[in-house]
Protein 1
Amino acid sequence: MFRPSTRHNLPSSSSNPALEVKLNKRQSGIGAGGPSARWPYRLNFYEHPPTLDITLEEFETFAIARLRILSHIESLSHRSLPYAQIASGITTYTKTHLPLSSNTARNVNLDEERRRDEIGHWVLRLAFCRSPDLRARFVRTETALFKNRFETDDIHERAAFLRSLEFDWQIVDESEKATYATELRSCMSWGTKDDQFKAESWFKVPWYTVPDLVGGRRVFIRAGMAYVPQSLQISLVLQAFASRLEKALELTAKNLPRLDEDERLGPVIDHLASSFLSGLGASDYQPAEGSGSTSAVTAEMVDDVARKHFPPCMKNLYERLKRDHHLKHFGRLQLGLFLKGLGLPLDEAIVFWRRMYGATMSDDKFNKEYKYNIRHSYGQEGKRANYPPKSCQQILTSNQPGTQDSHGCPFRHFSPENLTTFLLSSYPQLDRGGAEMREILDSVKTAHYHVACTRVFEITHSVKKGEGLGNAESVSHPNKWSDRSREMEKEVLEGIKRKEDGDEMMVDA
Amino acid sequence: MPIPVRDEPMVDYDPSSPQVMNAFYRRLFPYRPFFLWLNQDQIPAKLFTHREFAFTLAGDVYIRYNSFHTADEFKKEVVRLNPARFEIGPQYSARPRDRKTLAAGALQPQRRELVFDIDMTDYDEIRTCCTDKKICKRCWGYIAAAVKVLDHSLRETFGFKHLLWVYSGRRGIHCWISDPAALDLNDDQRKSLVTFLEVIKGSKEQSKKVNVRGSKDEGDLHPALKDALEQLKTSFVKLCLQDQDCFQSERGWENLLAILPQDRDVIGPLRSKWQADPGRPSDEKWGDLVSAVAMLKKNQYPLFQKFQRAMEDVVLQYTYPRIDAEVSKHRNHLLKAPFCVHPGTGRVCVPVNPDLVDEFDPDTVPTVGELLNQLDKAPVEAADGAKRIEDYDQTSLKPYVEMFEKHVAAILRDSRGAKRAFKEESMDF
C-alpha cells in the first residue's frame, strides 16, 4: 500500500539500503535523461505501488495534475466527437499538463516525468476506489489515457513493453490459419488481399477476454476462442489493463478502512474525489432553481407545452402515448423523467399518466403496476434515488429500442423515410424538398444526430444557423431544448408586454 | 379452464386454485434434480445457498430475496407459500435472505447461468396466424427456427455444452447455460455476447431491422452469421413463404419492398405486378423478386450485389432469433424456473430437446390438471418392500423429468471432473 511520508520522519535513511539506492538513482537521473531501472518504459501497467518517499505537496499536486487530465478526457468523450478528434484533444492536453516522453526523447528528465505519472495514478486510486460508480469512471478514463499513450508510443518501445508483460496469448499456427482461412479473412476489416492475409498473424484467447471485439463482431470465434489479429492487439492490452486496474481498485477499497494512514492525507483524498464528481456533472441536467424561466407545469399544460416546446424524441413519445394510450417501459421512463425535469410535480405526473392511459386501463391495474414506477422515478420508492432526466448521450447509447419500442432518438432510431414524415408532421416549419431538410438528413447520415437536432431547433425557433440553443451550444439534453424554447417564448412575450406598456405610457403622456 | 375429456370423466383441476398448486408442489415438482441443477454438487454450495429465489403469490404479491440452506428447506417453503410461480436469480456475495443485516452494497450478484428468453410477442409483426397472447403449432415454427440457430451458435461458436431449453408455458422459450465459464461471466461480457448474437434491432419506425454489414451496409457477413443464414434459408422458404405466407397481404409485401434497396426500376414493376394480382402467394412473389434481381446480374453488377445482400438480410429479419436482450445482459435478472406452472395456461414449463424442437407442440405439453388426474388414476403405492417411485414417474411428466435428470447428470459429471483435477493440482504443491 501507498505510504507517503515526508523526508524527515523517515526512520533513518542509512539503515535502509534499498531505499538509499533508489534515492540515489533518482538523484543521478536528474540531468542524465536516460530511462532508469524503475521506469524502463514510458507505458506503465501500474502493477507495483511506489515505495519511494514523497512530500505532502507532491502528493497533492501530482494527483491534481492527473485529475485535470482525467476530467478533460471525460468531458471530451461526452461531447460525442469523432474518435480522431478526441484522440488529438487528449494528446495536446497531456503534452502541456502531464507530459510523458519516450526513451528516445532528449533534454527531458524522463525519471521525473514518470515519477509524477506514477505517483499521480496511485494517489488517485486511493481517492477513487470508494464507490462502484467512481471506480468505473476512473477505470474508464485511465484506460482512455493509457490507450492514447499506447497509440502514440514508439513502436519498438511498445513492443518491448508488451514483451515485459508476458501475456500468455496462444499464437495461431499456420495449419490452423489455413483451416479457418475464409472465416479469418471475412473478419479482416482493413483489407482482404492475399498478401495482407499472409502477413497477418493471430492470437487465440477465450472470447470473454475481449468483449469489445466480440460485441462489435470484429473477430472470428470458434469453440469459445476468439481469433484476434495482431492489428487488434490493442484491445487485448486495454482489456488486461482495465481488468487488472478494476481488481486492484476493489482490493484497495476493501483495505482502505484499515489503512494506517497519516491524518493529513484523508482530507486531500476526499477533496480529490469530490472535485472529480462536481467537475463532471455537466452532462447531467440540473433543473433551474426556483420559479426562474421554467415555471412548474401541470398535467393540463403538458399538451400545450408539448406542441410548442418538445424536442423530436419527446414529441414522438407523447404522440404515441396519445394515440395508443400506452408506452413500453423505457418509453415511459424517458418521457416521465423528461416531464419531471420540465417541472411536472409528482402528483401532477400521476394525474397525467392516469389520464393518458385512459379507459383502456382499470384504476386497479394503474395503481398496482404503474403508480409505483412513477413514484419510483421521483425518488419516492425503492432506494429513493432522484433520477435525473436522460441526456442525449444516454438516449443515444443505452437501452436500444427493441422491435415494439418507441423510445430512443428519432434521428438515430428511425429510418430516413419515417424520420422525414415524422419531422414534417410534427414541425410544420419544415418543408419536404427544402435545403434545410436535406441538411438535416445529411447530418443524420454521418451520424451527427445532435447537429441534426440542433438544426431542427434553429429552424423551428427562427434562430440563425449555428446559433443553436444560444452561444452555439448544440442540443445535448432534451430538457435543454425545452428550457431554451420556453425561455425564448417568455422573452418574446415580455417584449410584447413591454412594448404594450410603452404604448400605454405614450397614450398616458 | 376446460380440459378435454378423454376416456373417462376427469376432475376439473383449475391451475389458479391454491389446492391444485399445492398438490403439484407436494407431489410433482422434481426437487432433487432441480436442486442439483442449480447447485452442481450434492452438498449445498454457495450456488444454492447464496442464490436468490423470488416468489409470486396469489394476488400479485411478490417476495424477493429468499434463499435456502438446503433443498429440503426450499421444498418446505415452496409448499408453505404455494406460489403461483417462482423465479431464479443469481448467486450473491452473501445470503440474500440476510440482506437487511448487511452493509449497503455488500449484496452483489456474482455467478449466474447465462440465460436467454425468446418471446412470441417480438414476432407479432411477422406472424400472420395469431397475435398477442395466442400461439399455435404454426407460429411455433419461428421459435423452432430460432432455437436451432441459437443452440448451434452457442455450442459451436461459444463452446458451451450444458444448454437447457425450457418451454415458458405460453408463447416462448428460455435457455439456461450451466457451464462454469457461463456462470462466471460478468455483465459486460454477457452484454458483448448478446450484442454479438443480436441481429434484429430497431424500433417500430425502422423498417429494415437488420444492419450487420458495417456502416456502409456493404460488408461481408460475419462467419457466424453466414452459418446461421445457411441454416435459416430453408426455414425461410418453409415458414415465411409457404406456411405463414408473410408477403400475401398488402402490408406484408409493402414491408418487404421497404427493406429492399430503393431502386425504381426493380421495385416499381414488382409493386404494380403484385397490386394487379393481390392474391399471389408469397413464394411466387419471392420468385418474382429473385428473377428481377437475376436480370441485373449482367449489366448492373454492383446493384445486383446490393440486392443479393438485401435479400440475405430479409431472410435474417424474418427468421433470425429475436432474443429479449435485457434478460441476458444482467446477472441479477430473474427468470422463471423450469417446471413451474404457467398461471394462465396451466402448462408446466418443461424442458425441450433442441434437436426435436420442430416436433414440439405447445398444445401437447402436460397441464397441471392432466397430471393430477393421471396421479388420481395411478395405482395406490405398492406395499412396503417395493422401491418407492416418485409420483411424477406415474404421469406424463416422466419423460421431461428424465430429460432434465440426464442434463443434470452431465453437469455433475463435469463439475466433479473439474474438482478432481483441482484437488490433484493442489496436492502437487
Protein 2
Amino acid sequence: MKNDRGDIELAGVCKSFDGVTNVVDGVNLKIADGAYCCFIGPSGCGKTTILRMIAGHEDPTAGEIVIGGQNVVGLAPVQRRTAMMFQSYALFPHLTVRENIAFALRVRGQSKSDRLRAADAMIEKVRLTQFADRLPAQLSGGQQQRVALARAAITEPRVLLLDEPLSALDEQLRVQMRQELRRMQQELGITFIHVTHTQLEAIALADLVVVMEQGKIKQAGAARDVYAHPHDRYVAEFMGGQNVLSGRVEKVNGASFTLAQAAPSGIEVPLQARSTVSVGDKVDIAVRRDDVALVRPGRDLPPGCTTSLPSRVLAIEYQGYFVKVMLDTVPDDEFVAYVPEKTFFADPFTVGDVVMATWATGSALPLA
Amino acid sequence: MSAVLADMPEIAAPATTKAIAPSKGGRPWTFYVLATLFACYVIALYGPMFCIYILSFQDIRGGLVFPMKGRSLHWFVDLFTQVRTGDVKGSFDRSIKLAVIVTVITVVVSFLAGLGFRKRFRGDTFVFYMMIGSLVAPGLVLGLGTGLLFQALGLNASWYTSALGAQLSWTLPFGVLVMFAVMSRFNHAWEEAAYDLGASRWQSIRLVMIPVLAPGLVAVALFGFTLSYDEFARSLQTAGSLNTLPLEIWSMTLNVTSPSLYALGTVTTIVSFIVIGASLGSIVLIQKKRGSRVRA
C-alpha cells in the first residue's frame, strides 16, 4: 500500500560540507502532514541546506529525516516522493511548457498520449492552457513559476519543497503568486516546505514558521506566535515589528518586575511563566511597535500605561494606514512607534519634538 | 602663441558639426574611415583566395598567373582524369574519412571532458594545462615526434593511425575549450531538476544535457572537421605512404604547373563551405524546430 502521509520529522540533523563547521547543526523539527511550513533566516543560515536534505539532493552528515514514518536518508527524490521547485525554476529551455510538465512521466516510461493528457490536466489546473506550446523563455516570471509548480506537482508528491520561489519576481507579482502558492497547497492537500528570507512572505503563508540562525532553529511555531511572542532578541529583531530594550532588573514584585532604564520610574514588565528573573539580571524585553503610544509631555498617559520614556522624534515616515515615527528612546537600539494615521494627524508631531513613549504595561514581553 | 590661440575658435567650430555622434540622417565621418578600413581588411583576407578561384576557371591555354586566358571547366575535368596530377581522388577520400573520424572522436571526448570538468577534482588544473600544452606545441615537431615514436615501436605510420593521433592532439584541446565555453552557460539546476523528477543519469544526459548543448556540440564538430580537413604540419611526418589532401596539394605545388592546382583549391573550398553551411544550417534548424512548435 502506498504511504501518502507527508508528515516530516527531522531528528538531530547535521550537515557539514568541510568536516569542520556545521552548516546545519542538530536540527529537530516535526512538520504535520499537509502543513505549509516556512523556513526563514538570513542567507547562510542553513535553511536551503535543510530543504535540499529533505529533497534528497544532499545527504545529512548525521541525524534522521523521516517522511511518513519512513527514514528516507539515502533515498532518491522519487523514492521519497518529494518534489522540488528550484529557485530559478530550472525549467528545461528546449522543452515546451507541456513537455516540461510531462517530463517526470516521460522518464517513468509513460506513453506519449497518457503523459500529454496528464500534463494538459495539470496545465489547466495552473491556468496555462493557452501557453502550453511555448518555451520557458517566452513566458513571464509568474507563468514560469506556475510551470515549475505544475512540473513538480504532476508526480503527486507527498511533500513539495520550494526554494525561495518568489525571489525572482517583482513586488506586485510576489504578493499575487504567494496567494497562488497557498491555493495550490490547499488544492493538492500536501505538505509544502518553503524557504524564504522575507518575513512578510513567511507569516502570510505558513502554518508553521521556523526561524533559523547559523544552522540552528531559533523558534518554530505558528506565524502569530513567532511574530507576536518572539522567543528571544534574535527572533524579535528578525521578524520585525518589535522594539527590543535591554536593562538590569531593579526589583521583582510578584507578577511583574521593573527594568532599570533611562526612565524616572523604570519599566514595569509582567513576569511571564517562562521567565524567572532575579534582581541584577540583564534582561531583554520586546514591545510591539504598534503598541507604542506617543503622548506630549505633561499630558495624562492612556489607561493601563505605567511606563513612559521621554524621547525625541528623529524621523517620520508616512506609510499609508500608519505613520512610522522613529525615536531616540533608547541609546543604542532602534525604537519605533507605528501610530495609526488618524491618530497621528489629529495632533501631528514634527522631527525634533519631545514626546513620551508609552505602552500598556501588559503588552511588554520579556525575552529569553 | 597668440596666433595659435586666435586659431582655436576656428578649429573648435567645425568640430561640433563633425561630431562622432550621428547627426540627423547623415553618418559621422568616422563611419567612412572605419568602413574603408574594413573593406581593406576583407580584400586582404579574401583577395588571395579569389585569385585562385578565378584562375581555376581558365581554358586549356591557361597559365599560373594573370591575365586570365579564356573561360572553361577544363582544369576541373583534368583534375579528376589525369593521373599525372597525383592521387587527388584518393587523398580527398582519405581526408574526408579522417576528418569524420576526428570529428566523432573530438565531439565525444570533448563532451565527456565537459561533463568531467563540471566539478573540481584533484589535479584538474594539471590536466587542463597538459591539454593546453599540446595545443601550443609546434605542430611540425609534434608530427615529427609521432612519426619517430611509431618507427621506434616498429609500427607503420598511416593516415588512420599516426596521423589520426597527431591530429587529435590538435583538435581535442580546441574541442574541449569550446565545450568549456558552452558548458559555462549550462545551468546545473537543470540536471538537478531532472534528477528530482526521477530521471536516471543516462536519461538526464540524453533528454536534457545533449539537447540543450546541441548547438555547442555542432560547433565542436565543425571545429574538429575543419581543423582536421586542412591540417598539414602534424600530418606531414605521420601520414605514411598515402597522402591526405593538404599533403597532396603541397606535393602538387612542387611538380604540377597547371591551373588544375587552382581547380583543386576551388573544389576543397567548396567542400569546406558545404560542411560549414551544413553545420550552421543544422543549428538554425534546431532553433527553428524549437520555434515552430510555439506557433503550432
